[in-house]
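Escalated from tier 1: adenosine monophosphate holo job.
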Amino acid sequence: MCGIIGIENNEDAMVLTAAGLLTLQHRGEESVGITLSGKDKMKTFKYMGLVSKIFDDEILLKKLPATTAIGHVRYTTSSKSSLTNAQPFQITCIHGNISVAHNGNITNFNEIKEMLLRKGAIFSHTSDTEILLHLMAMAKGDELTDIIASSIRKLDGAFSLVILRDKTLIGVRDKNGFRPLVLGKIGNSYILSSETPAIEVMGGKYVRDIEPGEIIVIENGEIKRSFIYEISKKKNTCIFEQVYFARPDSTMFGHTVKEARIKMGEYLALQMKDIKADIVMPVPDTGYCAAIGFSRVSNILFENGLVRNYYVGRSFIKPMQNLRDLIARFKLRPIKEVINGKEIVLIDDSIVRGTTSRRLVNILKEAGARRIHFALSCPPIINSCYYGIDTPSRSNLIAANNSIEEIRKYLDIDTLTFLTLENLIKACSFDDKKNIEEDNNFCTACFTGKYPTKIPNNICKEG
Ligand code: AMP
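Tier 2 regenerated the structure:
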């Protein structure tokens, strides 16, 4: 879970990159980094915390003349949260000055690291991204695309990358297309970004998605594209981006994520057509769109009975378990007048550990809720993600270890409904007739256990 951005051939590269990163802040709040290149030598600046930290750094602000830049916001999924592991990673090697920002998880990291250590490589980070820099530094040849492609072919797993080599900007997406990466344009400059809203905020226009397995090299406003692998019809884009992670104003597969989430709510309402309730209420913020869709189809009144404190950040986003409790307690507050005496359909995107939902149910009951029907806009999460979404180990996934009825009892609610996988795929495909077997767009491993790549035995999930 990270956000990446890059811009080439633009006098305002630094400010635009910072603006883009602010728009991707939801993809990671732990650290932020930016690499600048232009008249001066390439330089990287990194900070723990929010993107706004960039604007406190007078030295960085004096570097405004940069014409090419990449940036990264980080949420740790596979290594320590620290300034050393903050990205982009910049190195100098035989192929020039190179800086890399990565979103995803390289699943054969341990195996490649072992091989590199034997060859004498020295590691200064614990992040999986560092192995790519070693592979690129050791790659033979002069052609930039060959150097990148030969390194990438050794990697398994999920990686959307923006890379800077001196003033050249490069974008890469793994062959499954797990994590998003889009291309935009502003004037004579190209932009690469995890999500489309960052391009729009920068004043640019969305051009297209980077294809799975594609490398694009951008120099002086010109693009060269090539493919690392033969193009496959089957993509494995993470469906959970649409359920939870991406911004609702992001465009994915030709529609906004908001529209997909509304559809999820509509299908949930069809699944729950026998339920009568006074109000349908979202868990802010990801539940909003699905609750609108639910209300439209069921004709149950949409109400907002929970107020979110926006200064806390996503409760999960801080990886320290001991702080999660505290954060969650003041993150959502109930509006008693809305809730008291009501039979409620409560809509959230997902149940992971179950702790947030249980706390939420308590809050609603204390505020006087009469009956609670809890509905989730995705199926039960029964498998960990090894491709960049922060899900805990299977032992901590409530649905991996309990039946739906057991979860309902644990949450102490009246009914519990998960969106079926079929309906989720229909919602994200905008195709009412789509069936699971025909789907060739999505990775659904967290719900099905069908991982599109080999998962090594020694890969472990924390927490
Ligand atoms: P839990 O208490 O573990 O069941 O948390 C469920 C809540 O966490 C839901 O409200 C989701 O919006 C949110 N959530 C789900 N997946 C993630 C994730 N990977 N990172 C952060 N938050 C998440």
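Residues 241-448 form a domain with the Rossmann fold fold (CATH 3.40.50.2020).
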